[in-house]
């Protein structure tokens, strides 16, 4: 829900536009107009476009970090724990589609002049997950690539979905497609990390 206060409203609008159009495709004027404010008011509350982008990315990171820490609080270093962690990450991306969208724009060299965010935000979370998951996987597993594969697939599905028989994109808004992707993701993780596929998920699979 968008807040009534001007700074929060600007941040909400900027998040939506940066996630839809990217940093390079969004102007401060566009943000101001969408928020129903003038440029001077936006500048007063949040500064320039770069300042606003940093605030958007920090808020997105805080939400993702909080979800990760919550998931890791009950983590068990076994197959079931890994699969629950995968579910938690997918659920976060479904509930906060703006977060994978923001990072996917960066994959395409958006906001190239803001180059430090991956080291500040992404790398520490990858290291945190790797440390938790490593005891559950074999020594020969390329854990970094396995973790990145989950991210690539989940972000891609959350933004692009799959094509139905008529060539239309369907994805997270379609419960059946979401269930299919969840089952597929668990199979993929199981193969990458040599883990069994949980029987509970096998019973839920629509396939």
Automatic annotation (TrEMBL):
Pfam families in UniProt: TetR_N
Enumerate the spans annotated as HTH tetR-type domain. 4-64
> Which keywords does the record carry?
DNA-binding, Transcription, Transcription regulation
Feature: DNA-binding region? 27-46
Q: Per its UniProt record, what InterPro entries does this chain match?
A: Homeodomain-like_sf (IPR009057), HTH-type_TetR-like_transc_reg (IPR050109), HTH_TetR (IPR001647), Tet_transcr_reg_TetR-rel_C_sf (IPR036271)
Q: Which PANTHER family match?
A: HTH-TYPE TRANSCRIPTIONAL REGULATOR BETI, HTH-TYPE TRANSCRIPTIONAL REGULATOR RUTR
Please identify the protein, giving its name as recorded. Answer: HTH tetR-type domain-containing protein
Species of origin reads Actinomadura fulvescens
């Amino acid at each position: 829900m968008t807040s009534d206060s001007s700074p929060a409203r600007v941040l909400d609008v900027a998040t939506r536009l940066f996630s839809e159009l990217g940093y390079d495709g969004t102007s401060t004027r566009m943000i101001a107009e969408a928020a129903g404010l003038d440029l001077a008011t936006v500048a007063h509350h949040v500064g320039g476009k770069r300042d606003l982008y940093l605030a958007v990315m920090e808020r997105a990171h805080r939400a993702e970090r909080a979800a990760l820490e919550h998931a890791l609080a009950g983590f068990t270093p076994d197959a079931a724990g890994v699969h629950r962690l995968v579910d938690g990450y997918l659920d976060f991306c479904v509930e906060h589609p703006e977060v994978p969208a923001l990072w996917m724009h960066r994959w395409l060299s958006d906001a190239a002049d803001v180059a430090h965010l991956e080291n500040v935000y992404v790398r520490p979370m990858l290291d945190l997950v790797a440390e938790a998951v490593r005891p559950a996987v074999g020594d020969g597993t390329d854990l970094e690539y396995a973790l990145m594969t989950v991210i690539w697939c989940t972000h891609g599905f959350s933004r692009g979905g799959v094509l139905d028989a008529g060539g239309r994109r369907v994805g997270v808004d379609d419960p059946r497609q979401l269930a299919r992707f969840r089952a597929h993701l668990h199979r993929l993780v199981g193969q990458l990390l040599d883990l069994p596929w949980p029987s509970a998920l096998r019973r839920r699979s629509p396939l």
